[in-house]
Amino acid sequence: MLDVSLPDIRDLVRRRRPGYSLEAPFYTSQAVFDLDLEAIFDRHWIFVGVEPDVPEPGDYVTVGIGRQSIVIVRDDDNEVRAFHNLCRHRGARLLHEERGSVGNIVCRYHHWAYDLTGALLHAEHMGESFDRSCHGLVPVHLRNLEGLLFVCLADEPPADFDAMAATMAPFIAPHDLRHCKVAHRMDLIEEGNWKLTMENNRECYHCSNHPELGLSFFPPSFGFDPADISPEQAAEIAAYEAAKESFRARWAACGLPVGPIEDLVTRPTGFRTERLVLSGAGESQTMSTKIACRKLLGSFTEPKLGGLHFWTQPNSWHHFMSDHTVHFSAIPLSPERTLVRTWWLVHRDAVEGVDYDLERLTEVWIATNAQDGELVGYTQAGVRSKAYRPGPYSPFTESLVDAFTTWYVRRLSAHLGIADEPGCRAA
């Protein structure tokens, strides 16, 4: 497929039709992909990891976002910091592994050494006039939301993160991620554009493809057409509403905020949260719908607390239960490839094989991720077709997909200076 020019992209943005999927170049074009990196991933708060990834001083992880490599490290004062992963001498990559532990950060090329606050400690043969204080590592903006790590590559990041964090902290804090550990992490490459990954995540119209995940949800929670309800569906809806009342009493007794709170479209750091009813035993997203880890999180003593979901624009989704949490980050690799990274967290004192079985803990989302990756691949193959035209979203099950694509087009509009266009006004 021929690529598009910047004027073409402006036209695509201007004629975006609310309530419909995006035109094909948004999913296939190298020029659009490059603009996505510049306008979205270089300028917004990107979810990149969890605090338990760096549990001890000196522990680090490296994260790639487009052409940028970032180091996230815990310093000797237990503060988590982020830096560009390059030496201030001649730009060599500093840390080459995905994760590890260091005393200081030392460049392999000419052995410039930095401490864990980013200060340059040692640089040979630079002369008496050389000022080490001017050559520390380049910092990256980092925010730690109750154990969730977000970075922003912009010189001036969106100022709305702190307001979002203040809203979300009471929802997340009871799960006490800072006292969790990473039980498992997994990388999956989806053969599709990152926006298709996110669109797929923002709806459950397709959730009949997820029999494992479906065990823990009432079908009406996926959405339904109120004008087309069978007697069987009516019974399911009644059971769902009764379960919601029961769970609301449990949540109130535990002092847990419920939501929903939704601000997905108009702000740069769009987000949504809601505490969810789970079916069956109602405890966790497992094949049995019971907890997978006997050591509950935080100060929880009640396992049957359903789940909390949390989304952020542009690239994350999260599920919190009483016994474990699951976190997802989508990072674009190319116009048609996306990295989906998943973390499973349990209480840091939980012992594998005693308090939890790793297969039981992870099997639902390992299966669901694979199914979603396949569906995204099907869609990517379809949008390459010359027959593809944007299709309508269901108003009952895909309104949140429309919210994502509307947010995305508005952010491109803001970046490109396009304003006052129907459906794509810059926020």
UniProtKB/TrEMBL annotation:
Q: Which UniProt keywords apply?
A: 2Fe-2S, Dioxygenase, Iron, Iron-sulfur, Metal-binding, Oxidoreductase
Q: Cite the Rieske domain residue spans from the record.
A: 45-151
Question: Which InterPro entries would you find in this protein's record?
Answer: Rieske_2Fe-2S, Rieske_2Fe-2S_sf, Ring_hydroxy_dOase_asu_C_dom, Rng_hydr_dOase-A
Could you say which cofactors this protein requires?
A: Fe cation
Q: Supply one GO molecular-function term.
A: dioxygenase activity
Pfam families found in the cross-reference section: Rieske (PF00355), Ring_hydroxyl_A (PF00848)
PANTHER family xref list: CHOLINE MONOOXYGENASE, CHLOROPLASTIC (PTHR43756)
**Name listed for the protein in its UniProt record:** Aromatic ring-hydroxylating dioxygenase subunit alpha
